[in-house]
Amino acid sequence: MKHLNHIGIILCLIGGLSFHSCSKYENDTYGRGNSSDGSSFIELGTITAIGGNKEITVEGDTYGTSHIANSRMLIQQKIDSIGQRVLYLYRIDATGKHHNGKYIHIYEIQKVLTKQFLVTAESGHLGNDPIGIVNAYVSANHLNINYSIYTGFMGGKAVAHDIHAAMKPDAVLTPEGYLPVELFHHVNGDESGKESQRWASFALSSARPLYGSKTKGFLLTYPTSSGKAVRKIDIKPNTSQTP
């Protein structure tokens, strides 16, 4: 797996997640990575099941299904909804045994904004405030966007920004096979402050039937401080691996 050190730094800063000793981690554009000594990993994934004993299962975009040995931590943080996307730092739990997958121990975890695509002809109300794209990739079930915005505080409180991905009902693939999608950002009156980098995941199932077997990727348009920008996001072959 190819590694890009600057992406590791980005992941360390996302949403206030500390990821202790982040300088040890190398990551690529898929939001995944491992420590330089191979002892721990960073990954994007989806909560897929909660067992009768409250054991939570996560499906990682890169390393597949894992059973979380310290599931109580997720329950206490209310990160236990099936379908919720998460960014997590973990190690393989060598003491855990399971007939259908591996056990992991999560050190740190945060929710990832998990949304549906909007299919609408009217998008003016969704916001046109600047947003940056750090990285983006398509996993088995989601379009994942690592975005950058500026956040401040109003009355000493953080303000939630609205992020949407939308396509028009009459959208068609470009001659190259890309599906046009527009990313919208609304600051909701927030004051511009420090830069914040986060992930958002949009369910591919909500893009059907516009998204299908002939789709080669997404043609993403988004607002910047200097006008509209466009980015192509290719669908890559299956990149699942074994840690």
CATH topology of the largest domain: Immunoglobulin-like
Order of helices and strands: HEEEEEHEEEEEEEEEEEE
| Average predicted local confidence, pLDDT | 81
What is the H level of CATH, i.e. the homologous superfamily of the largest domain? NigD-like, C-terminal beta sandwich domain
Q: Number of DSSP strands?
A: 17
CATH hierarchy, class of the largest domain: Mainly Beta
How helix-rich are the residues, as a percent range? under 10%
N-C termini distance: 11 Å
Tally of helical runs: 2
> Rg to the nearest angstrom?
18 Å
Beta-strand residue percentage? over 45%
* Weakly predicted, low-confidence segments: 1-30
* Strand order, largest beta sheet: 3-4-5-7-6
Describe the structure.
- This protein has 243 residues and is mainly beta.
- The chain has 2 domains: 41-111, OB fold (Dihydrolipoamide Acetyltransferase, E2P), CATH 2.40.50; 114-234, NigD-like, C-terminal beta sandwich domain (Immunoglobulin-like), CATH 2.60.40.
- Helix content is 6%, strand content 47%.
- It is built from 2 helices and 17 strands.
- The strands form 3 sheets. The protein has a 5-stranded mixed beta barrel.
- Strand 9 (132-138) and strand 10 (142-151) form a beta hairpin.
- The radius of gyration is 18 Å and the shape is globular.
- Residues 1-30 have low confidence and may be disordered.
